[in-house]
Amino acid sequence: MSSAASAAPVANRGAITACVILAVIMQALDTTIANVALPYIQGSVSASADQINWVLTSYIVAAAIMTPPSGFLAAKFGRKNVLLTAIAGFVVASVLCGVAQSLPQIVAFRLLQGLFGAALVPLSQGILLDIYTVEERGSAMALFGVSVMVGPVLGPVIGGWLTDNISWRWVFYINVPIGALAFAGIVIFVSETKRDALAKLDWFGFGMMSLFIAVLQLFLDRGEQLDWFSSGEIMVEAIVCAAAFYLLLVHTLTAEKSFVNPRLFLDRNFAISMVFIFVVGVTYLASLALMTPYLQTLMGYPVITAGIVMGPRGIGTMLCMFIVGRLIGKVDTRWLLVFGLGLTAWAMYDMTGWTPDVSQWTIMSVGFIQGAGLGFLFVPLTTIAFSTLPAHMRGDGTGLYNLSRNIGSSVGISIVSALIVENTQTNHASIAAYVTPFNRAFDAAAAQSLSPLTAAGRASLNELITLQSTIIAYMDDFKLLMLMSLAVMPLALTLRKPKATPASTDHSAVME
Length: 512
What we know:
Helix content: over 70%
Strand content: under 5%
Radius of gyration: 24 Å
Structural class: mainly alpha
Number of strands: 0
Distance between the termini: 14 Å
CATH class of the largest domain: Mainly Alpha
Largest sheet: none
Number of domains: 3
Order of helices and strands: HHHHHHHHHHHHHHHHHHH
Number of helices: 19
């Protein structure tokens, strides 16, 4: 961090903090605020159940791609200039999302949102670290962490209220006043950093990584719809994805200064933590993507109710992050990770038994437990990931670490969405095999309305079978997420016990 900014007038420090926190909250809100509005967006743009999740994955993928080079852009063009450009671009992209009339339009504009929004969190964090002293950074990062976690708490509730009372388009328009305040404050109070005209970026490595991530996501999003490798498009995407990964790998291992520093993976704690944070990304946002259609489509919840019952998940995360902050250094970090994974697996196990008759209290309590599991994972995992990494490698490490989390989130959403569609069809075929005019169960008086001998009966029967097939498909997805949480648990035993490290250096990395 530059020391020049640390000389910022104390009188302006509160205003600077408020402005950058606003920018962070705006970006964090958009990670979850659109979730509860997805069924409404789906109807407006005529998208299928798996296609509508592109609205979520496009944003995450774009943010994943643009997060690592944000430091280079700030060094080259000045941090204030890049931050102002990011806020302005994010607000314009938000307005475009609100006026979108088709699925390709809203996906393209969500990509723009992600591209501009990627720099908001790391650059805002850099400003806070600069304007507070070393002794004050712990408190500053706690405040910063709360602002990041406000999104998962308030996103579904605010999104639900806006969708129910105004329109789903306002989940994007709400960024306009927030962005305008943040932009004005940064223009007035934040000073520019010194530019480095000699700053360079490994464009080939960055390009191959971006191509690999983008095509992998396209492959996963389009695969189920096009019947995977029976489609020529999917074959081409698979080849391009494999080729981009190969070129990235070779370039990383042979280039003098590559975009991805291969020496990072020689550190055992960091390499294992990359696997952990990938699984955390999968289980958290993928389960959020599953919950929205489950609550609104299967259970018939109004959008505002769906947002409220999803709120305790974020509250559990915030509460346990504060608790874990006090436990770090007193309890072995590896056991905190095991406990967090155990809570996540427990929540997923409970969800494998859900039916549309499950109570609101159960949904909220299980959501709280899952959020608590995430709270016990985030800070300890970041602490242990960077505890044995040399200080000069932490900048590269945080970018790659958060890239892994974002890829896990987008890949997880795509996989569970594809499995819902595929398993629903498979389950429907399996159950329908027992539906014949000769099945004596249809002779019962209670089953007369479902008789396969009448058109009305066949329609009702098909609707019931589809409902049951979908419920089983959701159970299978929750079971998969549970097994993933349990599968990485033994890896905690292979981690080295971290050394005691200042909260301001390690705990903050999770927020970038």
